[in-house]
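Next comes this protein:
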Amino acid sequence: MERINGAKPKVSVIGAGNMGGAFSEALSRLEGIDLCVYDSHLPSAQRVAQGQAITVFSSMKEAAGSHIVIIAVKPQVLPSIWKDLAALKPDFFISIAAGVTIAKLTENLGTDKVVRFMPNIAAKIGYAVTAVAYSKALDEASRKDAMEVAESVGTAFELDEHLFSAFIGISGSGIAYMFELMHQMAMGGVREGIPYPKALSIVADTMVSAAKLQKETGRNAIDLETMVCSAKGTTIEGVAALSEGGFASAVINAVSAAARKSEELEKRS
């Protein structure tokens, strides 16, 4: 981030839970920012800041005048702190609160300069996949800064907000499907004689190798699948078994089910 009037931009994280902590720790490794964190439970903020270049606030009011305020509290907490957040008047807000729309953020924060993030759980280890949506009023420089924040915990994708439910289906919730697939494949290995811990490690490394191959080649997933399938070979037998078991429709339906649930919860928020 560029200096503002010769000074380091001040970035304040409100909330030091799992996501707030993950973003705070990642941002502390960026050069050129003045990073601060506040949590109503002071020991949580102190734990996140321990050993890091992070200033701990004892009051949310100390975040006033920030370039960016990152809202990392649970959605149900927001009604009790909307007024305090609005009083901070940063250049713009970033919200990680699940299900809280840009329209609702704009209404309650008293500004039309907001960004909405939807990261997945891998933010804890710096491998999150994050969807990013901006309010229309946000300028290009602020969008660039927001993307830098999102990419501090992994990769980020700009999406229209109406696609966030689909994103949840393939990433936010979708990461759980990967764990389910890992478990079931490992159980298949157990059935064939490999102990579960070793089978799970093999499956995990296989998933990583598949992801890296697709990312580095840029090839369509179906093209890579057919490369592995030899005529009358072992792989096509396994793929046929997946098809007969309804694998394709089960995965597509899982994505849609999570997306529909996300839309339902967003309407309630």
